[in-house]
Write a structure and sequence with these properties.
By secondary structure, the chain is an alpha/beta fold. The protein has two domains: about 5-210, Spore Coat Polysaccharide Biosynthesis Protein SpsA, Chain A (Alpha-Beta Complex); about 220-315, no CATH class. Helix content is about 35%, strand content about 15%. The chain contains ten helices and twelve strands. It has an eight-stranded mixed sheet with strand order 3-2-1-4-10-6-11-9, sandwiched between helices. A four-stranded mixed sheet has the order 5-12-7-8. Helix 2 links the parallel strand 2 (about 30-40) and strand 3. The longest helix has 26 residues, at about 290-315.
Length: about 325
């Protein structure tokens, strides 16, 4: 039997936390505890969470320190070896923990388990991140480095193994954007990852207080700190391609009206070293929309041309 500690960071989610807790209590798998970390909420989030009377629920209050500090406190307070994350405006299907516990029992040596998720965009359209190249409901080992960032783990659809204190996997509290991806990378570089290819976790982009809608300092974004993995990516081709996809995904987010190039660029990733493209996401941020496509085409394709010229010379 697998016991699971569910960590829910809570900050000003008084209108959504109720649905989140109810989704956990409705799980068909019942061997769990819920650790709600109230991260200095200034609304009635704490009072709403406090209304639930279940001995499996523990509420911890702390001064506001950000979602990573809240999750890390939850990890440290967890009494079980497997940690499931759930944000306070997300929810699971009723069989999520049941399906994930089967995966844990089947692959006990893995360090991380996750499933695809569904999300509602700002237009109300539902999207799924199920990996189409895998069989429906596939359950097994996977290398997250062989897939795009969009197909990778989502925090509210991920369970990690709690290791010894000296090797505890924690979120980097210096990051306010990309801290989850950074943790998945560190875990995947250390051990096995398992996927259950069935979308059982859900979130809404229009939910209250979404972090991704808030501005953040560049220095606190993972995208600006990928250089720390430079030595590893130079020796692990799959990992380098994965980081390049993250870099390119970030660039795509700032391209407007350039759909043809956006569709084509993935085929060229192997031809350039995107680690040298740090100027992209600095300049694109300040360019007017009408100039972004021109700048992108000129810079990106000129680099491909230079690569091909030097590659031919080397041959």
């Amino acid at each position: 039997m697998v016991n699971i500690s569910i960590v829910i960071p809570l900050y000003n989610k008084e209108f959504s936390i109720c649905k989140t807790i109810e989704a956990v209590l409705a799980q068909t798998y019942t061997h769990f505890e819920i650790i709600i970390v109230n991260d200095g909420s200034t609304d009635h989030s704490y009072e709403v969470a406090k209304k639930f009377k279940d001995e499996r629920i523990k509420i911890i209050s702390k001064e506001n320190g950000g979602v990573s500090s809240a999750r890390n406190l939850g990890i440290k307070m967890a009494q079980y070896d497997h940690i499931a994350f759930l944000d306070a405006d997300d929810y699971w299907d009723h069989n999520y923990l049941s399906e994930m516990s089967i995966a844990i029992n089947k692959f006990p040596s893995a360090l991380m388990y996750y499933c695809p998720h569904e999300y509602i965009d700002k237009k109300g359209i539902c999207h799924s991140t199920k990996i189409k190249s895998l069989e429906e409901k596939y359950m097994g080992l996977i290398s997250i480095f062989n897939y795009s960032q969009e197909e990778g783990p989502w925090t509210s659809a991920t369970i990690i193994k709690k290791t010894t204190e000296s090797q505890l996997f924690l979120f980097d509290e210096d990051f306010t954007m990309g801290e989850d991806i950074d943790l998945w990378i560190r875990i995947a570089l250390k051990g096995e990852v398992v996927i259950v290819n069935k979308a059982m976790s859900h979130y809404n982009l229009n939910a209250e207080n979404r972090l991704m809608t808030k501005p953040t300092e560049e220095s606190k974004c993972l995208i600006m700190n990928l250089g720390k993995y430079r030595k590893i990516e130079l020796t692990v081709p799959d990992f380098k391609r994965y980081l390049d996809k993250i870099r390119m995904s970030h660039i795509k987010n700032y391209l407007i009206g350039n759909t043809r190039e956006v569709r084509e660029i993935d085929t060229f990733l192997a031809e350039i070293d995107l680690d040298n493209f740090s100027f992209f996401w600095r300049i694109i941020r300040i360019l007017p929309d009408s100039m972004r496509g021109v700048f992108f085409r000129t810079s990106f394709y000129s680099n491909i041309l230079l690569h091909r010229i030097f590659f031919i010379k080397e041959k």
